[in-house]
Amino acid sequence: MIRRPPRSTPLYSSAASDVYKRQPRPDAYRVGRYQVRSKSDIWLSNASVLYEEALQRQWSSATDIPWTTIKPLPDDIERAQCQLATFLTEVEFVAAEVPGRWLASTTPDYFEPRMFLVSQIMDESRHLDVFRKRAFANGGGLMQRPDVTTSGTVGSIDLSADFTEMSSRLHISGEGACLTIFRMGELMAYNEAEKRIYRLAAQDESRHVAFGVMHMRYISETEPERKEEIHSYLDEGEAALVAGNQNPASRDTAQSEALAILLGGGEKNFDEGLSLIHI
Which residues, 6 or more positions from 164, have their beta carbon under 8 angstroms from its beta carbon? Predict the structure, then answer.
């Protein structure tokens, strides 16, 4: 027997309650409420070229890295490789996460820079994947976690007031520092797999730096009154890279020790390796 509700109980909710139920959550995403709305906020002249290059140069950590060339290494060398890989894994995680936050805030009218940011997320996700794999590939594993997400240039990215400020910190200061490390790969790689990782990562990172540089160029040409503001962002990034923990070449960090060991060829040549970092 089917039990029916009493006549005093309405079978359907009232129109007023339906409207109430349809109210979105206060923190729900709203289509059209874009923080980045004007062209100068995000534009650069060669965004479409950079995006097309990103599409053509996609690679896979599973198929494009000759992992079998990694052979057992001395303990000090392996620990140093794993420490640097741990640092780069965390840095690239931040570099993949930040552009995604700005995508939802950017009007789709500016298709090219939006799509480039999508390709950057793909690039950085691949980087954190490949460096994490390198940390585990030879029996080492992840090492001391660097505190790069809450300090210095990296930590200040989340405090950026607009896209230009964020780009100066991420694409120029942050990505520029990583690009320098990747270009040192030939000197601190001990097998073909590591060399390939650094070459491919440098190829991607160059695009990210170019995006930031060309955006700053567009801003300086179209809004020259902001030049001093941009200079202040870059000065801040330069100061942080000299002494900040997010810079692996800084003194007395686990990353700088790892670089010195790798460049010197072992702990016994630590001083020689350290001198190469600070040339």
Answer: 41, 215, 216, 219, 226, 230, 233
